[in-house]
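tool_call: predict_structure(chain=1)
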Amino acid sequence: MRIPGGIKNFPPALRPREKLMALGPQKLSDQELLALVIGSGRRGESALDLAQHLLQAGHSDFLLQAEPSELSRFRGIGPAKACQIKAAIELGQRLSRLPISSRPVIRTARQAADLLLGELGHLDRESVRVLNLNSANQVIAMDVVSIGGLSSAPVHPREVFKNPLKRGAAGIILLHNHPSGSLVPSAQDIQETRRLARAGELLGIRVYDHLILAGSDYLSMRETGYFRP
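tool_result:
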């Protein structure tokens, strides 16, 4: 569907920037991510349109291999936008080459909580995150699996384990926030955690813990006996 007038006329839920802020970059398509790098479109075409033109050009590695001068030949992609695209790609490649030793190692609930307390502790709606760990307890990725209403964030095993399975994760740590400020797990929290732990056993991915974050504090459901992995 094409909406005239550019991305600013899209419904908020369809705007790449708003979508990234609400759901995280993992939920954006290649076209949406590239549109954010491009920044703006041209008369009659949005940044999403320009992104689609680039993604449809040539072979799958076109953006990786193309020189800025090649990209700037596309209508609406001048030298500035071409350099933005190449800079973003180069930064992503450099980060992907970081040594494994630089990945955070999680050995305690406190360490896991510290990674996300600043981001989740003060949100006004519940959000569920999943830390993916390898066999050495290193964090290999973090997924956003749900953005809920003011008091709940439903999750489904399919969404929780989809990416950890692709990455070959050995285990996961669930984290979600309580906007109310209470650290006491609800009956639903306990039930969902046990259900996900059983699903993890079947899939060969251990659920190490489920942390509840509120303000600047946290609760480990494993350490407090609500859940035994």
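agent: The mean pLDDT is 83. Proceeding to next step.
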